[in-house]
Design a protein that fits this description.
The chain has 351 residues and is of the alpha+beta class. It contains eight helices and 15 strands. Helix 1 crosses helix 2.
Length: 351
């Protein structure tokens, strides 16, 4: 009876795993059911657990890749030139994406590991994003609960996407104000609680003027507003209020002053002197998040490999749990110094 129950459980496992894997790659679930059971039958000599581990790694990695890809769709990074096809071994060559090394900026953002080659090319290692480990009991894993898999995938995917967008926003914002990397400050009324000067419609015009001065084409200009600046415009601009109908998934707001406008909650912090702070830094008094605008053809993004790490419960007799996490490579950065403009919040300590 035990052997029959074990055989039935194995068939059920293979059926569910095969259907899920088939759906991941766009095939008929029935084909996946049949195919997985055939593979299991042919792999009878494989040690117990090896086939299961491989199947789960494939399925879960595929599901996460889908989630990460969909996370870019419709976002403020959607439409940015994608150079993933020329990223080899999670490294991309800047000459291949049209970057002139003489005008490469913001390499202190990560910092990015750079390697100059003999032909004056620069190889850039994509950023590595790793999630913390999630424990999953042996029973949960071998029951092939799709709900559990979906929850774990969603949790890890959300964490990686959050980190990717934070890094991308930081990379697309200038380190400080220069002729080619303007960092402007807001000029509106003082917020009585924080001393922050509010963003005004005139400040948006100044951002447009800065891009005009750098001869940035009027099409494909994208403006990413921090929540403080969105709220400022809602108070000050009737035009902005009338079209403010944010897409809660992508953050897209609308179009104004020639900008495609998005809202994003984790833009970089700037000091009172107008210098960008490091990723993950906390705000001191008088320091606030910025908004930024950029010209999409002059930036790029690239996605590298995604890998699942997994240890079986059989190697952890004390806790009897499996451990799972993911590693993902991605980068977004400007091709040129004159890619855009930053709007930091001004500060006035006293009224």
């Amino acid at each position: 009876m035990n052997r029959i129950l074990m055989m039935f459980a194995a068939l059920l496992f293979n059926a569910v795993a095969g259907a899920t894997l088939a759906r991941t790659v766009g095939l008929s679930p029935m084909a996946g059911v049949l195919g997985m059971n055939v593979v299991a039958a042919l792999a009878g000599a494989v040690p117990d657990g090896v086939l299961h581990a491989g199947v789960f790694t494939e399925i879960w990695t595929g599901e996460l890749v889908k989630a990460l890809r969909s996370g870019l769709e419709g976002s403020w990074l959607d439409g940015v030139p994608d150079q993933s096809s020329i990223a080899n071994n999670d490294v991309i060559h800047l000459v291949d994406v049209g970057v002139d090394p003489d005008v490469l900026v913001n390499n202190t953002t990560y910092p990015i590991p750079l390697q100059a080659l003999e032909d004056k090319d620069i190889a850039v290692k994509l950023d590595k994003f790793q999630t913390k480990v999630t424990p999953i009991t042996d029973d949960e894993l071998y029951a092939t609960s799709y709900d559990k898999m979906a929850r774990v995938k969603e949790s890890h995917g959300n964490s990686i996407n959050d980190a990717k967008f934070t890094k991308a926003a930081h990379a697309l914002c200038a380190q400080k104000n220069t002729a080619k990397t303007p960092v402007l400050t807001t000029t509106g009324e003082r917020d009585v609680e924080t001393g922050r000067l509010r963003l005004t419609p005139n400040d948006l015009v100044e951002m447009k003027r800065a891009l005009d001065k750098m001869k940035v084409p009027s099409e494909n200009r994208r403006l990413v507003l921090c929540p403080d600046h969105v709220n400022d415009l809602l108070l000050a601009s009737q035009n902005f209020r009338e079209q403010y109908n944010i897409d809660r998934v992508t953050g897209k707001v609308g179009k104004l002053y020639g900008f495609d406008i998005f809202e994003y909650a984790n833009t970089p912090l700037y000091t009172k002197a107008g210098v960008k702070k490091d990723v993950g830094a906390t705000a001191d008094k008088g320091e606030f998040q910025c908004s930024f605008a950029f010209y999409t053809p002059r930036v790029f993004k690239a996605t590298g490999s995604t890998k699942m790490y997994y240890s079986e419960a059989s190697t952890d007799p004390q806790n009897q749990r499996n451990l799972i996490n993911f590693r993902h490579y991605f980068i977004a950065m400007p091709k040129k110094a004159d890619v855009g403009v930053v709007m930091a919040s001004g500060y006035k300590e006293n009224p």
